[in-house]
Amino acid sequence: MEKFPEFELENQDGEKVGNKDFEGKTVIYFYPKDNTPGCTTQACDLRDNLGHLNELGVKVYGVNGDSKRKHKNFIEKNDLNFDLLVDEDFGLAESLGVYRMKKVFGKESKGIVRTTFLVDEASNILKRWDNVKAKDHIDELKTYLEEEA
What is the tens place of the pLDDT at every residue in 89-115? Predict the structure, then answer.
């Protein structure tokens, strides 16, 4: 089984979060940028379903290259109820192959490709969703978790 890489990143409050914080199952989702339409939709869907995910024994973390200040603003603006992790040098995203060349509005640039990982407390990757569509992903995630529960 593929392992999630060892990591330690700061959350929006400067607290260190890493593999040591994996309990039960953890959803770690990589998204391009705070305060953009698709990323806001995805974050708010997770926020609105966090109670249900927690009942299924699942914790949630979002990750991208934005600063603690931007994460804090995004959390406050959208009343998010989970931590966002700072990967400013894209080290973790790169090690998982989710920071790469992509086309946005016909323009090629390097960035985070929306990807979600489900990991267990031993850092085993139980499931990986690539090229996630922000709008419908929560339903896909819940269906998978409910079937596994």
Answer: 999 999 999 999 887 778 888 999 999
Task: Please write down the HEC assignment for all residues of the chain.
Answer: CCECCCCEEEECCCCEEEHHHCCCEEEEEECCCCCCHHHHHHHHHHHHHHHHHHHCCEEEEEEECCCHHHHHHHHHHHCCCCEEEECCCCHHHHHCCCEEEEEECCEEEEEECCEEEEEECCCEEEEEECCCCCCCHHHHHHHHHHHHC
The domain locations on the chain are 23-148
Indicate the pTM of the whole model. 0.95
Percent of the chain with pLDDT over 70: 100
Range 23-148 classified under CATH 3.40.1390.10: no
Check 9, 17, 39, 92 and give the catalytic one: 39
CA dist 71 and 22 (Å) reads 21
Residue 39: active-site member: yes
Whole-angstrom Cα distance, residue 52 to residue 58? 9
